[in-house]
Design a protein that fits this description.
CATH architecture of one domain: 2-Layer Sandwich
Strand content: 15-25%
InterPro entries: TonB, TonB-dependent_transducer, TonB/TolA_C, TonB_C
Number of strands: 7
Keywords: Cell inner membrane, Cell membrane, Membrane, Protein transport, Signal-anchor, Transmembrane, Transmembrane helix, Transport
Largest sheet: 3 strands, antiparallel
Subcellular location: Cell inner membrane
CATH topology of one domain: TolA/TonB C-terminal domain
Helix content: 25-40%
Order of helices and strands: HHEHHEEHEEEE
Structural class: alpha+beta
Membrane topology: Single-pass membrane protein
GO molecular function: energy transducer activity
Shape: rod-shaped
């Protein structure tokens, strides 16, 4: 054990001496301008005392030189600068209406005026005058009722009369308009018209019966 300690102490002394020499060498190298190379070599020697450095990497294969017969490429043609771009101004913002307007009132459709009603047809005029009804019959009865005195005296004549015909078609009044010259014949004519004569009464425009006047002549003749 004592021998071993002595050997280790001797190694330490040797190491101290070596380190001192290294420092002296470094100082000298710094003075002479070779400090960097010396420091590198010393550091490499000191660091590689106990550590094995890995082998340096193999150099990569250099690319083959380009063939000499390939012609050089022509320079690219000049590129014209792009035309300026006109940027249109931004459109105005769209304003949205938030309030909904009330609906428009419905359109008032005025119908065309109705065509005027056609005029009412004029009322049918139903007016007529009084007309004899069965004149042949009652005229012969009046003539047969010959006044006896005028028949005995052989008196003949024509008597013109005007009678008023009522709404019932009967004679309401009689007047001699043309005398025969015999009062007996004139009186017999009005009496016969009042007793035997019949008429269709006269009508107004509405068709209602009205009174009317009728004129005729009574002829008295002896057989």
């Amino acid at each position: 054990m004592a021998y071993a300690d002595q050997e280790m102490s001797g190694n330490r002394i040797v190491a101290i001496i070596i380190v001192a020499l290294i420092h002296i060498g470094l100082g000298y190298a710094l003075i002479t301008g070779l400090a960097l190379d010396v420091a590198k070599s010393v550091v490499e020697r000191v660091t590689t005392i106990d550590v094995e450095e890995p082998p340096p990497p193999e150099p990569e294969d250099e690319p083959p030189p380009p063939p000499e017969d390939i012609p050089e490429t022509a320079p690219p043609p000049p590129v014209a600068p792009p035309p300026p771009i006109n940027i249109a101004p931004a459109p105005p913002p769209i304003r949205t209406q938030t309030t909904i307007p009330p609906p428009a009132p419905p359109a008032v459709v005025i119908p065309p005026p109705a065509p005027p009603a056609p005029p009412a047809p004029p009322p049918v005029n139903k007016a007529r005058g009084a007309s004899p009804k069965g004149q042949r019959s009652w005229a012969s009865r009046i003539q047969r009722n010959y006044p006896r005195r005028a028949e005995r005296d052989g008196i003949e004549g024509n008597v013109g009369v005007s009678v008023t015909v009522g709404t019932d078609g009967r004679v309401a009044g009689c007047t001699v308009t043309s005398s025969s010259g015999s009062s007996d014949l004139d009186t017999a004519a009005c009496d016969g018209m009042t007793r035997y004569a019949r008429f269709d009464p006269a009508l107004n425009t509405a068709g209602n019966p009205i009174t009317d006047t009728y004129r005729t002549t009574i002829v008295y003749r002896l057989n």
